[in-house]
Structure formats: C-alpha cells, structure tokens
Specification:
The chain is mostly helical and 190 residues long. The chain contains 10 helices and no strands. This is TetR/AcrR family transcriptional regulator.
C-alpha cells in the first residue's frame, strides 16, 4: 500500500472510531496510524479537511454500492415498498452517522461534481421512482427523484427545524419512517 492509501485507510479507521467527534482527529494521529511523516497529509490532500472529505466520499461510496446489493435482496417487495425500505435505510444511515453524512451532503452542495454522492444516490433511486410511476415521462421521473433526494437531505440537515415546524420528532426512527412514507405518497401522487 502506498503512502496516500495508508493515510486514507488510517483516516477512515479514525473516522469510524470517533463518530460524531471528527474534530478530535489530528493530523498527528492520522500520520502515526498510517506510519507516515506529518507533511504527507498536506502533500497528498492539501489539508486535513480535504483528506476527511475524500475519506467521507469513499465511505459513502461504499454505502451506495451496498445499496445496490440490498436492492437485489428485496426483490419480493412492490416498487413502492422497495423505495420506502431503501429510503428509510438511507435516512437511518444519515441520522446514525451524522458527522460523516453532514460532511458528505454539504460537500456535494458546496462543490457539486458529476458523480458525487448526491448524484450517485439520485441515480440509484431513479429506477425505483420510475418503477413506481411507469406512466410518467422521463423528465417527470427525473424531477420527482431530484425532489425526493433533496427532501431526504433537508430532512437530515434541518431535522430540528422541520421537527418544530411540523410538530414531529424526526430524530425518532418511527417518526422519520412515517414522515418518509408520507413524502413518498406526496411526491409519487399515490
């Protein structure tokens, strides 16, 4: 393993160990765990923040890939049930891994890329929305899928404000699930 990959692996391990306390991860800790010199983080990534963003993207990419496999495991469900199940799984991940998820979503919003995590999530949901509403044209499916992904991100990022506004505690899994199901009904018009 080269130095850059060793730094990434060490950082991912520290992210997983520190959970919500990413600010406690130091370049010194990263380099010590990677077995590399202190200057290599800046050399390869420019800063600790850029390194963490790269690691978060890799973590989320792994989740999106697992998402594809899970879609195959739930073949017996209706299209709506699949969308509901995977949406709840996505929201649960966002809330259970808040620090990593916040970095991922905000990075995608601040510096959108063609294949960033938001786009990959959108692409993964596109066929499910289409399967739920085969009567919609391609433009409508794309627009409604974009709305769904945007609402999920906002539900996560602004859950405290939305909870107060709608009088529902979105930090609670059951409430979040019910909210998500209602949003699906609203978007899909079913």
């Amino acid at each position: 393993m080269d130095n850059k990959e060793a730094i990434i692996q060490a950082t991912i391990k520290l992210i997983e160990e520190n959970g919500e306390h990413l600010e406690e991860i130091t370049v010194r800790d990263i380099c010590k765990n990677a077995g590399v010199g202190l200057g290599l983080v800046n050399y390869h990534f420019g800063s600790k923040d850029k390194l963490i963003e790269a690691c978060v993207e890799r973590i989320i990419n792994g989740i999106v890939e697992r998402f594809q496999n899970i879609r195959e495991e739930i073949e017996g469900l209706s299209s709506f049930e699949k969308l509901e199940y995977l949406g709840n799984m996505t929201l649960d991940f966002l809330f259970e891994h808040a620090a990593v998820s916040r970095i991922s979503v905000l990075t995608d919003m601040q510096s959108p890329k063609e294949c960033d995590n938001t786009y990959r999530t959108y692409a993964a949901y596109l066929s499910l929305v289409s399967a739920c509403r085969p009567d919609w044209d391609t433009a409508t499916v794309r627009r409604k899928t974009f709305c769904l992904i945007t609402i999920m991100q906002q539900t996560f990022l602004r859950h405290e404000t939305i909870s107060k506004m709608l009088n529902i505690d979105l930090s609670q899994k059951d409430n979040r699930s019910a909210f998500h199901t209602q949003i699906l009904h609203d978007i899909l018009e079913v």
